[in-house]
Write a structure and sequence with these properties.
Length: 360
């Protein structure tokens, strides 16, 4: 590590500004800042080396890359110094962060300038290859030979020249084939037109012959249709006369059938009404007899059950009194017996009440 110096005069402006804003005792702040003087000095020196470089020159791009890498080497010692100094009090830690950030910001800005010079040549090469590609696409486009699987950018001039010549040869051969095919097509069309003209002339003669024959047939057909029409007219007159006579007879028979049906319907309606009236009277008589029978049976049953109901009521009173006289057993076995017997007696009591209701 470079020897520490505490004179204010040697502090760069960036560090001096941080010292004045630190809030620390002046001597302490300057002592800590002195550790970062060598880093900022190296960054400044490398930045000065970067200024005369020309981004248009490939050799300067190499120099810019070296400067960027040298700047990168400062990150580790700067970070170590920051970690060492931040072990002090919290105020010193904030102060040290500010010093570090001043150096890191200057380093990043300088690295960015270096990288811009370094990358410029790469960008120029990309632009050159893009121009080469566009030019080659324009050369190949008339021949329809744009193949996405062929790397036009990577081809050297000799290889591309051969590729372009092959594309032109294939294109010219295809055009010649198309020309010969067009000649053959035109000749075929001309032959087809001649055959069509001859065929249409023959068809015209055939149509004229058929039309003459059809006209003769049509005239004969018209004469036959006139004869048939006259025959049909006379036949229709005779048929209309017969139809009129048949209709008169049919109307007469229809009236006879309608009168007969009306009389039959009247007789059927009278018979149906009489039958329905008899059925109603029969049903009413049946219902009266059934009601009288039910009343008689109910009275007989009530008379027969009158004695049983009284007997059962007398027995029920005695049975209830008997339940009340069951002895109070106190032993364990006696309690079990008492429970089972009492349950059975109550079941019988319930049975008497339920079944007794059936007695009218």
């Amino acid at each position: 590590m470079a020897k520490e110096k505490t004179e204010v005069a040697i502090l760069q402006p960036q560090l001096l500004e941080v010292v004045n804003k630190s809030g620390l005792e002046q001597t302490t702040a300057e002592k800590i800042a002195a550790k970062y003087v060598p880093y900022l000095a190296q960054i400044t020196e490398l930045g000065e080396q970067l200024k005369p470089l020309n981004k248009e020159l490939p050799e300067d791009a190499v120099k810019a890359k070296r400067i960027r890498l040298d700047l990168g080497k400062l990150s580790k010692p700067m970070s170590d110094t920051k970690a060492e100094d931040k072990a002090a009090i919290l105020v010193q830690g904030r102060y040290i962060d500010a010093l570090y950030n001043a150096c890191e910001g200057a380093k990043l800005l300088t690295q960015k300038d270096a990288e811009e010079i370094e990358k410029h040549q790469e960008n120029l090469e990309k632009q050159r290859l893009e121009l080469v590609y566009n030019e080659r696409v324009l050369l190949l486009e008339p021949y329809g030979e744009i193949n996405q699987f062929v790397d036009l950018k990577a081809m050297d001039e000799l290889t591309f020249g051969t590729y372009l010549a092959n594309a032109k040869t294939v294109f010219d051969a295809k055009k010649e084939q198309e020309r010969l095919a067009e000649i053959a097509r035109v000749e075929a069309e001309q032959k087809a037109d001649q055959e069509r003209i001859e065929r249409e002339a023959a068809e015209k003669l055939e149509r004229e012959k058929i039309e003459k024959e059809n006209a003769e047939l049509k005239a004969a057909q018209i004469e036959r249709e006139k004869q048939i029409a006259e025959q049909n007219r006379l036949a229709k007159i005779e048929q209309d006369k017969k139809d009129a006579e048949l209709k008169i007879e049919a109307d007469k028979q229809a009236k006879i059938q309608a009168d007969l049906k009306a009389e039959n319907d009247r007789i059927a309606a009278e018979l149906k009404a009489k039958k329905e009236a008899e059925e109603i009277l029969h049903q009413q008589e049946k219902e009266r007899i059934e009601a009288e029978e039910k009343e008689r049976v109910a009275k007989a049953k009530a008379l027969a059950n009158a004695g049983d109901k009284e007997k059962l009521r007398t027995f029920f009173d005695k049975y209830v009194a008997l339940i009340d006289t069951f002895p109070d057993l106190t032993s364990t076995e006696g309690k079990l017996i008492s429970g089972r017997v009492t349950e059975a007696l109550l079941m019988v009591k319930k049975l008497i009440v339920t079944d007794g209701k059936t007695l009218v």
